[in-house]
Amino acid sequence: MFTQAVKLCRKLFASTEHNEHDSNGEIKLNIITRPEHPISRSHISDSALKVLYRLSNHGYDAFLVGGGVRDILLGKEPKDFDIATNATPEQIKDLFRNCRLIGRRFRLAHIMFGREIIEVATFRGHHQEPEKNQSAQSKEGMLLRDNVYGTVVEDAERRDFTINAMYYNIADFSIHDHANGIQDLNDGIIRMIGDPETRYREDPVRMIRAIRFAAKLDMTIADKTAQPITELAPLLSEVPSARLFEESLKLLQAGQGLATYKLLREYQLFGTLFPSVARHFTDDNSSKVEQMVETVLRSTDKRINSGKRINPAFMFAAFLWYPLQAEAEKLMHEKSLSYYDAIMAAGNHIMDEQVKSLAIPRRHTATVRDIWQLQLRLTRRTGKRAFQMLELNKFRAGFDMLEMRGAVEGGQVEELAQWWHEFQDAPVVHRQNMVQSLGHSQPSGRRKKRTYAKRKPSAKPAASE
Ligand code: ATP
Ligand code: MG
């Protein structure tokens, strides 16, 4: 069904002449009637159709817009369906019992259908002249408020990329393409509507959205859209850290994390999101930090693309593990702390710095710390310890990270990961043999504690390095 949609679209636009890198994202309405395009109602969820129809039956304009239209035209299953209308939030609320109004910056209606949420937004308009309404913009041009209603044309002008400004009209099933988005979709171009620099200054998150769509859709960012990004990258630090946290998940935990990371690095956007990681970047991509980032993103992509669940905290734990080690080394050296104490103190430093950029919620930071702790605990396997470890809630996450460290470092860490790999799946008798055959190379619990206490500050357990 979806492949058919793409083919039809290709055919429709194959003959159009277009200069893919030079045109500007100007607004000019092009209406494509139902027989000329491949979107059918069977591509749209029942809930979204219900909302579209009810709005339309009550005399309002109702369009499916954004990723929903874009993804159907690309032959992909849309992640969610967004609707734009001329009904105000209050008018929307009057029509739907299952409606919640959210958002302070811009009021939106969420219509709930079980777990599915259909987001309905009233057309956004332009801001007043800056001199009349100075407080709506920061001195860098960032929009602080965004609550003016407008016409559908104004709404299209305020969207980010041409491929996101296509509106499917439920009244006659036509597509209203306001910025030549279908052509850009066919050419594989991410192009900003309007002047890219102004639009990035209004909302710096658009820089990472450009990267996200380029990676997700395997498209190229148009020259003029790409050009200002690196210079404006520092503006991202002005975006509230809670919004950046949400964006970071969409960027790196949506199935194309590795490709997205590479693009973020290329445009120098990664360092604002993960400063302590970016400090370890090398020209030849050779640091352990870089290898770990690639390893965890490759694995996350694989899990997501095969429908497996992921724990968002795991990626943060892995990203920050080697920066944590470097910081701990420094503390051991400068403050003569034991390895354990240095790791604890470094953990606080690293996490404090990280949450300034991305407001990682506490439930996730707690899991990150658990996964780090497990890296230390997994080195201790004697007596009942290995058996008890298997019962721990976070054991699997701790082990997965140990395996990734093994892949990055080899040596003793790899051997330790191999041991745990075997231990987990072995029959009980074999497990007991495994623990026993650790023999005298591993001190028993009590003796080990004393040995630790006598360790010099510089000594640390090999497998935890
Ligand atoms: P997906 O949901 O697949 O990630 P999407 O394009 O639907 O992609 P959303 O974040 O759901 O992205 O946003 C819906 C639409 O709202 C976009 O297609 C775009 O038209 C508009 N939009 C979202 N964020 C911005 C922004 N920062 N600036 C301008 N327009 C935006
Ligand atoms: Mg969407």
Automatic annotation (TrEMBL):
Residues 62-191 form the Poly A polymerase head domain. Residues 445-458 have a biased composition (Basic residues). CDD domains: NT_ClassII-CCAase (cd05398). InterPro entries: NT_sf, PolA_pol_head_dom, PolA_pol_I, PolyA_pol_arg_C_dom, PolyA_RNA-bd, tRNA_ntf/polyA_polymerase_I. Residues 337-451 form the Polymerase A arginine-rich C-terminal domain. This is Poly(A) polymerase I. Residues 437-465 are annotated as: Disordered. One of its GO terms (biological process) is mRNA processing. The active site is at D80, D82, D160. Its EC number is 2.7.7.19. It comes from the Bacteria. GO terms for molecular function: ATP binding; poly(A) RNA polymerase activity; RNA binding. Residues 218-278 form the tRNA nucleotidyltransferase/poly(A) polymerase RNA and SrmB- binding domain.
